[in-house]
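Cont'd.
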Amino acid sequence: MGVTKTEIFTEQQNRVADLAKAFAHPARVAILQLLAQKKACVCGDLVDELPLAQATVSQHLKELKRIGIIKGEINPPRVCYCINEVVWEEARQTFGSLFDIYVGASTCC
Amino acid sequence: MGVTKTEIFTEQQNRVADLAKAFAHPARVAILQLLAQKKACVCGDLVDELPLAQATVSQHLKELKRIGIIKGEINPPRVCYCINEVVWEEARQTFGSLFDIYVGASTCC
DNA sequence: ATTGTTTATCGCAATATTACAATGAAAAAT
DNA sequence: ATTTTTCATTGTAATATTGCGATAAACAAT
């Protein structure tokens, strides 16, 4: 039905899924790469760097802000975006330990 | 339009997005955790472990196979699933270097 | 007050995803 | 041959996502 049954999974599983969603679209990967590569905040010129309409970029930014992995600081008339260091580290840790639960050496297949 | 413009992004960005999709739904996270925790392949009892219908689980498995992160070996009447070690490592590397491009210490925000 | 600049939001259209019942397919077991 | 078991696929329904034009909002500068 397009409706995910979040209530039947653990908090951790839902959080992993949400963090993964931040990277689950090439446009958002591109945005995050742009933000991560700069030391300073990127003030709005994301639209110029991406082959997408301003409304579309704004929507992806909104989703990234919902997840928490970026921050937006209003600096009228611009808005400056940057990586949220805390959540970025949370994501690094989360995926790090996730990948570590598989130790390799399957006995079959 | 619900249609991602894959052609306007790099191969790498599209691959990251695809790998992230494997983890972008709590049911798939649960499946991957189950498979990763076992040494041996899991032969079909995934449906019993998950609060989802058999058809739904099968659909998620199909998506994970498309991405390549799991393998399915037919062993009639069962099918044994396991992590694809190569792609699992690819994902680990991919996300590892992705998280490393951000060095922290933003000068603003 | 008006204009210009920048970003967010709304509304719409199209496609994608999620979920499941029902059915089909494939092979072992009876 | 029929039944049973297991998994995939099909069909259907509902919700989510993606994309963009148009518009609104917020503020600076004139």
